[in-house]
Write a structure and sequence with these properties.
Low-confidence stretches: 1-16
Strand content: 25-35%
Mean pLDDT: 93
Order of helices and strands: EHEHHEEHEEEEH
Number of domains: 1
Helix content: 10-25%
Shape: globular
Number of strands: 8
Structural class: alpha+beta
Distance between the termini: 36 Å
Length: about 200
């Protein structure tokens, strides 16, 4: 049984979170990069810009969201839209403002991927404990562009040498995966997207 809870609350980053330039966390650049301006910042407006499609040759597309003032959305703004019950302003402050957001499109569909780097001085142990709350979040459907269907139980996995947690869904290709590579957190709505993100972070 899956939850359909979402949030449409507008997110307004504080002045200290203002970003004017973006530097991707991917060491190997995405296949495509694009800038998108949002009039209102919410999970609905973000997902409204993401099209669910398929591709015989997989494509990783990095997306840089900006607000109407031309400022890049911070980690607090993005994660506050996707997982407000996990990434409060306090939790988001433990991560660098400049996150990396992408979509991975393959023959199964299009899957959002988010990469965040822990801020220097923040506790990795505490961050890992907090992020585990993802598994009880009512907002997991926010990571999917289309209904993922029925969810399975959470399981342990290893991908590209990284320990991760995941749960699959009845929609072919859909699977919420998250894991840490060093001080960098990767969250993806498909295993294939998670694997590709890890490769690009090397």
């Amino acid at each position: 049984m899956t939850s359909t809870a979402t949030t449409t609350e507008e997110i307004t980053p504080s002045p200290s979170q203002t970003l004017l330039e973006h530097k991707s966390l991917f060491k190997t650049a995405a296949d495509v990069s694009t800038n998108i301006t949002l009039g209102i910042v919410s999970i609905s407006s973000i997902k409204g810009q993401l099209e669910f499609s398929t591709a015989q040759v997989p494509i990783l597309k990095e997306i840089i969201f900006k607000n109407s003032d031309g400022e890049i959305l911070s980690a607090s703004g993005v994660m506050g839209a996707f997982l407000p019950d996990v990434f409060s302003a306090t939790v988001s402050a433990d991560f660098e403002n400049d996150l990396t957001l992408a979509t991975y499109t393959n023959d199964k569909g299009t899957w959002p991927v988010i990469v965040l780097k822990l801020r220097s001085g923040s506790s990795l142990t505490e961050a890992k404990t907090t992020v585990q709350k993802i598994e009880t979040s009512a907002n997991l459907p926010n990571f999917f562009i289309t209904d993922p269907g029925t969810a399975s139980a959470w399981k342990n996995g290893t991908t590209e040498g990284v320990s991760n947690r995941y749960r699959t869904f009845s929609l072919s290709g859909a699977g919420l995966n998250y894991g840490w590579t060093g001080d960098t957190l990767v969250i993806s709505s498909s295993y294939a997207g998670f694997q590709e993100a890890l490769k690009r972070l090397r």
